[in-house]
Amino acid sequence: MAVDLFSSAVPTLQPLLSERFSLSLAQAGWLGGVFMLASAVMQLPFGILSDRLHSRLFTVLAPLAAGLFLSSLPAATGFWSLTLLVALGGMAVAAFHPQSTTQASTLSENRRGLGVALFFSAGMFGFAMGPTYFSVLTEQFGFEWLYVAMTPGVLATVLLFLKLPAPPKREAPAADLDPQALRATWRPIALHYTLVALRSVVQLGIGQFLTLYLYHERGFSFAQASFTLSLFFVSATVGSLVGGSLADRIGGKRVVLTSMIVSVPFLWIFLATSGWVSLLALFTGGLILLLTIPVNVVMAQRLAPSKAGTVTALMMGFCWGIVGITCVPLIGWLADRVGLEAVLWGVVSVPLVGFLLALRLPSDSRAPRLAD
């Protein structure tokens, strides 16, 4: 919860960072892309490194490092030093997740499903509460005092240092990187990867630019814009929990198809209206869009059960990060030229492409129970 609280710092603080450092929308998108590269794509090499070094410090020190660097953004002297702080904070987030996810499972012993569920739910809750947390702090103390925001990271590191045991050793961890087991099913896995990427374009596009859009083009205060971003992140939390359960009942393909086609009208309503109707449409559209967060992963794991770890890395952190470093800066670059609202209309329409691709999923593709 503490680590993912800081994962929301960059998109939340975009309006304040843009004003302080005179950032263009393209530069704002670049910051988002750098953070995604550092926090998501880097999870794979950090996972390999933590397996080899067998040190609990990857987990113990990550909350402190994430809090330190991402709470020090006001200390930047320009765009490039700001980028460096964002990258270092993102790498701290990346260092935490591979080892701690495994720890959450192994330390739960015969209740691993519950342990991992609590672990991910805490992370999603922290991510959802981040915008409100940073907004309240900056409103109360001012942007210059942002460094007080590192407190949860400091406390988490102290607690982990006192309580966390050394991680268990894995046998032959490098085997997870062997692509042989993936060759026979690469086409359907590639289809799932594409569907995750398309969903991530919408999720990241809204997540990175929502506060800027509401602050500059709708006249929201920083606090109001931050609260709305929290609302969108909460929809991700609810959607992911509902989606896994729904896939058990009606099948993964139906969930994916429904998510892609039904989410678009609600996101259109968000852009076309104002007031509570607009916010309700944003929450509903986000919830429906993000039903597929666990579904695509579980369906892809079923295609290559012996390489579930590799498939999970591809579908989650790696895919998320690749989209972040390519599409988020592109969205900012386009917004500088045609306007942010116009680009957002295009972004929220992307799931229509996903619906057409999802029709190619095998008709008998049924997501197994998440407990399995």
How does this model look, in words?
The chain has 372 residues and is mostly helical. It folds into two domains: 169 residues, MFS general substrate transporter like domains (Growth Hormone, Chain: A), CATH 1.20.1250; 192 residues, Growth Hormone, Chain: A, CATH 1.20.1250.20. Helices cover 79% and strands 0% of the residues. The protein contains 17 helices and no strands. Helix 3 runs antiparallel to helix 15, helix 10 packs antiparallel against helix 17 and helix 14 packs across helix 15. The longest helix is centred in the middle third of the chain and has 32 residues. The two termini are 25 Å apart.
Low-pLDDT runs: 172-177, 364-372
CATH topology of the largest domain: Growth Hormone, Chain: A
**Tell me about the biggest sheet?**
none
**What would CATH call the class of the largest domain?**
Mainly Alpha
Tally of structural domains: 2
Helix content: over 70%
